[in-house]
Design brief:
alpha+beta, 17% helix, elongated
């Protein structure tokens, strides 16, 4: 069994070392998603054929403009193709959020629309 790394520098991924950074190009893209489209950026490192690919999407509610570009650029400089996208229904991606589902059985039992709560006086 090999000995564990002796320093933090030994544990860094190989692409963070002294290798020259690759240049890259960025392209605006769209792709289908359900009944709509998602908008994104495609980062392609130059001079590499068949590079690995990483797909980047923020947590629900955030868009790719919220710093995914910086992360995608680092991957591209390391020779890895990156796709940063915004989920549909957010930002410049297509679609409109679906209305919240209504519990039809509960609505029938109530026989009326629920009223908003009022703050105590």
């Amino acid at each position: 069994m090999p000995a564990p790394p002796s320093s933090t520098a030994d544990r860094r991924p190989a692409w963070t070392g002294e290798q020259a950074a690759h240049s890259f190009t960025r392209h605006d893209i769209t792709f289908p998603s359900g009944d709509s489209t998602c908008a994104g950026w495609l980062y392609l490192p130059t001079g590499i054929t068949s590079p690995p690919v990483v797909v980047l999407g923020h947590v629900l509610g955030a868009t790719r403009e919220m710093r995914l570009d910086a992360l995608a650029e680092r991957f591209a400089q390391a020779g890895i193709t990156a796709v940063a996208f915004t989920y549909r229904h957010f930002g410049d991606s297509g679609g409109h959020p679906a209305p919240a589902p209504v519990d039809q059985a509960a609505a029938r039992r109530l026989g009326r629309r629920p009223r908003p709560r009022q703050a105590p006086s």
